[in-house]
Design goal:
Protein name: Carbon-monoxide dehydrogenase large subunit
Strand order of the largest sheet: 3-5-1-13-10-11-12
Strand content: 15-25%
Helix content: 25-40%
Number of helices: 21
Largest sheet: 7 strands, mixed
GO molecular function, one term: iron ion binding
CATH class of the largest domain: Alpha Beta
Number of domains: 3
InterPro entries: Ald_Oxase/Xan_DH_a/b (IPR000674), Ald_Oxase/Xan_DH_a/b_sf (IPR036856), Ald_Oxase/xanthine_DH-like (IPR016208), AldOxase/xan_DH_MoCoBD1 (IPR008274), AldOxase/xan_DH_MoCoBD2 (IPR046867), AldOxase/xan_DH_Mopterin-bd_sf (IPR037165)
Keywords: Molybdenum, Oxidoreductase
Radius of gyration: 28 Å
Number of strands: 32
CATH topology of the largest domain: Aldehyde Oxidoreductase, domain 3
Distance between the termini: 59 Å
CATH architecture of the largest domain: Alpha-Beta Complex
Length: 774
């Protein structure tokens, strides 16, 4: 490939604009005269709404409208939908009670929106919202998944007895039970995958407007995909044709799954704009996002891993309670079950697998997809089991893994959960990572650390995930008069660098620079459809559509070039930005063809420019994998954990841009380290109050909490599932990091006899574990 092609570390074309303050985010779109929306949120985790009195709020100068659920019901506004219903093990669908835009009759978590105020300014809206009087009859609350399923627990929804939303299973229960029962050795663990708050740098925001003449709405909002949001709004909430709603998304400051979903504020700014005759804005405070934006993880799992006498896995039994909060968020049932459970075997040959997941309603903020969406939970489970088993069996953790890895010669390998791994060399990546980390010299480093009052530990985790080739995508290629290209795609950048990735793919094909390719995303008027961003799919699917559209455009340009050269298009070759008659020096440049395409001298059939649209849906799932090695120190006096070295070796197949790939790995690994050591969403068990509702109580990872990452890539194992051999990469770091960190911590704590410690391993928890076990 050329200067800007696959494998080239092209710097991001969007960075200069963003770093010099020229980015445009949703809150930047506000104009003088916009009205402002303020939500009245419940202070109770669980309560009956006896009455809502909005009289005083409506009478305030500058207040334009006030809404309650009764107002929305009178207009036929639908509930926020569940997008991925799941079937339980009894064959019945999971329970999906309505998730009203504004609470209907009862609130079910702190922050549940009860009313909305629209006013001429944010200050007036805030003040008027304080005047909305809501009579609550408080009810008992439950915040933990296992507690919610117990007899006598407070009930959230009458449709869900014992708060059970779904009882789901995967695999062979009888065969797995026998495999574990007959095993020579069984390792058992209970693991908590702690709940995390997403905390994207940019909080949620929305601006709605309405054109009374056309009857059309325009929603500008921070999303991970405009087309899915428009479909939900039109078909399931507002009950109108999709053509009546335009959704646009400007720059987005992080999503991580949370901005896939539809929220009450996005519905309300549209309704209010229609009613008050002017655009209406909403920008969430950080506090709003803590108590209303979807959260992640929150599983409690009992697991058993059986081995035969030679240390080979015989069976894996898993019983999980997944806490999805007060309502079924868009994809919550899928994320809590199938999204991760298919990956239970990890990189290993596991002959028998059974997993049961009971999904529980609780009086907490709804849980949904968060970077990795189930795969981090699965990787954490199998990797903690493997490390614990190695210690119980008296084996080196790397050796036990090596004995059980799916070997390269067994590919393609179909797992007991029904996935087929197409390629991978798991032992090779583990061995390379441990060598890069100098694992052989650990004993000496441990001895040196003890002289300083520190406990040194090294742990590693081999992760494997499925992602990438999901759904379909569309792209539109328009040739501009200046010789550049405008490319519209249906995915949505949330900071990953899509403008560079797509430009790099197209520019290399055309002999242009990435700066000559203008990438457009986030406008439902540009395309017919788009899958948005999620599941590490954008470069594979969006790139597939972009290159398909580019190929169609080149064919049309050949016809124009043929006219200019008086040659048949079939006799033309295109390379390095030139259309040339094969075997001759007779040629015309890309720039000349672009100018001609926008001129008036072409035959009628060639006029109209070059504007091509293509779809791509041929890709399959990809299985990126790798090994994370974490080395850390624990202060014996305080329990403080300091990561001193972190090594990653990844197999991402063919690499488009190693510079941007490293950025993705860095970001994911930091989020994984944050979950392992720092981040913890805590609700009061009695009142249901969120106790970690600010950055004073909820600890985010900072630069001082993470080391410089040492990253290497294995690039000679391309996947056959797409034309480029690319494997999805956006979530990998968050999958490998938590088990690597916790394995390292348990290794460090061996002098104190610690067998297991749950995330997050805060200094207090570490100190207590040391003294409790010692």
């Amino acid at each position: 490939m050329g200067q800007f092609g696959f494998g080239q570390a092209v710097r991001r074309v969007e960075d200069t604009r963003l770093l010099t303050g020229h980015g445009s985010y949703t809150d930047d779109l506000g104009q003088p005269g916009d009205a402002h929306l303020k939500l009245v949120r419940s202070p109770h985790a669980h309560a009956v709404i006896s009455a809502v009195d909005t009289t005083e709020a409506r009478e305030q100068p500058g207040v334009l409208a006030v809404y309650t659920c009764a107002d929305l019901d009178a207009r036929g506004i639908g509930d926020i939908p569940c997008l991925a219903p799941m079937q339980g093990r009894d064959g019945n669908p999971g329970v999906t009670p309505g998730h009203p835009v504004l609470a209907r009759g009862r609130v079910r978590h702190v922050g549940d929106p009860v009313a909305a105020v629209v006013a001429e300014s944010a200050e007036v809206a805030d003040a008027a919202a304080e005047l909305v009087e809501v009579d609550y009859e408080p009810l008992d609350a439950v915040t933990e998944g296992p507690a919610a399923l117990r007899e006598g627990a407070p009930q959230l929804h009458e449709q869900a007895p014992n708060n059970l939303a779904l009882d789901w299973e995967i695999g062979d229960p009888d065969g797995t039970a026998d495999a574990v029962a007959q095993a020579e050795h069984v390792t058992r663990l209970q693991l908590v995958n702690n709940r995390v708050v997403v905390n994207a740098l940019e909080p949620r925001a929305a601006r709605g407007s309405y054109d009374a003449e056309t009857g059309e709405w325009h929603l500008a909002t921070a999303t991970q995909g405009v087309f899915g949001l428009r479909r939900q709004l039109a078909e399931q909430v507002l009950g109108v044709d999709q053509d009546r709603i335009r959704v646009t998304t400007p720059d987005v400051g992080g999503g991580f799954g949370m901005k896939i979903f539809l929220y009450a504020d996005q519905v309300l700014v549209l309704l209010a704009a229609q009613d008050v005759g002017r655009p209406v804005r909403f920008t969430a405070s950080r506090g709003d996002d803590f108590v209303s934006a979807s959260q992640g993880r929150d599983h409690v799992t009992d697991a058993a891993l059986g081995f035969d006498g030679s240390g080979r896995i015989t069976g894996l039994w898993i019983d999980t309670v997944a806490n999805i909060g007060a309502y079924v968020s868009n994809m919550a049932l899928f994320v809590a079950t199938q999204a991760g459970a298919r990956m239970y075997p990890g990189a290993y040959v596991v002959p028998a697998v059974y997993g049961r997941t009971r999904v529980a309603f609780t009086n907490t903020v709804p849980v949904d997809a968060y970077r990795g969406a189930g795969r981090p939970e699965a990787a954490y489970l199998i990797e903690r089991l493997m490390d614990t088993a190695a210690r119980e069996l008296g084996m080196d953790p790397a050796a036990l893994r090596r004995r059980n890895f799916v070997p390269p010669e067994a590919m393609p390998h179909t797992t007991a959960t029904g996935l087929t791994y197409d390629c991978g060399q798991f032992a090779r990546l583990q061995d390379t990572a441990l060598e890069n980390a100098n694992a052989a010299g650990l004993a000496e480093r441990k001895r040196e650390a003890r002289t300083r009052g520190k406990l040194r530990g090294l742990g590693h985790a081999s992760y494997l995930e499925c992602c990438g080739g999901i759904g379909s995508e569309e792209a539109r290629f328009r040739l501009d008069a200046d010789g550049g290209v405008t490319l519209s795609v249906g995915t949505q950048s949330n900071g990953q660098g899509h403008a560079t990735a797509y430009a790099q793919m197209v520019a290399d094909k055309l002999g242009l620079t990435p700066e000559q390719v203008r990438v457009r995303q986030g406008d439902t008027r540009d395309l017919n459809r788009g899958g948005g961003t999620g599941g590490s799919r954008s470069v594979i699917m969006g790139g597939g559509a972009a290159t398909a559209a580019t190929d169609k455009a080149v064919e049309r340009m050949k016809r124009i070039a043929g006219h200019l050269l008086e040659a048949s298009p079939s006799d033309l070759d295109f390379a390095e930005g030139r259309f040339a008659v094969a075997g001759t020096d007779i040629a015309v440049s890309f720039q000349a063809v672009a100018e001609a395409a926008h001129g008036t001298d072409l035959p009628a059939e060639l006029q109209g420019g070059v504007d091509e649209t293509a779809q791509f849906s041929e890709a399959g799932l990809t299985y990126p994998n790798g090994c994370h090695v974490c080395e850390l120190e624990v202060d014996e006096a305080t329990g403080h954990v300091d990561i001193v070295r972190y090594v990653i070796v990844d197999d991402m197949g063919t690499i488009l841009n190693p510079l941007m790939l490293r950025g993705q790995i860095h970001g994911g690994a930091v989020q994984g380290i944050g979950q392992a050591l720092l981040e913890h969403t805590v609700y009061d068990a009695d009142s249901g109050q969120l106790l970690t509702a600010t950055f004073q109580d909820y600890t985010m990872p900072r630069a001082a909490d993470v080391p410089d990452f040492e990253i290497a890539f294995v690039e000679d194992i391309p996947t056959p599932s797409n034309p480029w051999g690319i494997k999805g990469a956006g979530e990998a770091g968050s999958i490998g990091a938590p088990p690597a960190v916790m394995n390292a911590l348990v290794d460090a704590l061996q002098p104190y006899g610690v067998r297991h410690l749950d995330m997050p391993a805060t200094p207090e928890r570490v100190w207590r574990a040391m003294h409790g076990a010692g």
